[in-house]
Amino acid sequence: MLETVAHIDSHGLPLNRYVVWIDVPDDVWGARRVLKEEDLPGGWDAIPHGMASTQVGSDWYNANQEALLELPSAIVPEESIVLINAKHKDAKRLKATTGRRIDYNMVLRTLTET
């Protein structure tokens, strides 16, 4: 949710966000590519994103070697995000389940209005 909140603009809170669980087979998870902060080029964590992060993602996607890429969050670098390569053969093995709608509380609404 923090990744979503970080990208809120003057139009306010998004209303069409849902919690989604993704079941990843163990072998697909084990084969993921993992990039650490030291593996990334300078500027990878720029907000708004720039060419450095775009290039890393594009290179990984186009190489089509892994279904998943785990890398640090630009918002909270101590946490990870995982990208899915939809064109990788193992992507079809992932199973997504839609959960509940995300209800942003009034505290977040107040913060975005200032």
Give a quick rundown of the structure.
This protein is of the alpha+beta class.
Describe the protein.
The protein contains four helices and five strands, in the order αβαβαβββα. It is α+β, with helices and mostly antiparallel strands and 114 residues long. The chain is globular. It has one domain. The mean pLDDT is 81. The longest helix has 13 residues. The strands form two sheets. It has a three-stranded mixed β-sheet, with no helix packed on it. A two-stranded antiparallel ribbon has the order 1-5.
For the biggest sheet, the summary is:
3 strands, mixed
Number of domains: 1
Strand content is: 15-25%
- Uncertain regions: pLDDT < 50 for 5+ in a row? none
Order of helices and strands: HEHEHEEEH
Mean pLDDT, all residues:
81
InterPro entries: RES_dom (IPR014914)
Domain RES: 1-97
Protein name: RES domain-containing protein
Organism: Thermomonas hydrothermalis
Give keywords:
22% strand; three-stranded mixed β-sheet; 5 strands; alpha+beta; two-stranded antiparallel ribbon; 26% helix; globular; single chain; 114 residues
Helix and strand topology:
Elements: H1 2-5, E1 18-23, H2 26-30, E2 33-34, H3 51-63, E3 68-72, E4 80-84, E5 95-101, H4 106-113
Parallel strand pairs: 2-3
Antiparallel strand pairs: 1-5, 3-4
Pfam family, one: RES
Protein name: RES domain-containing protein
InterPro entries: RES_dom
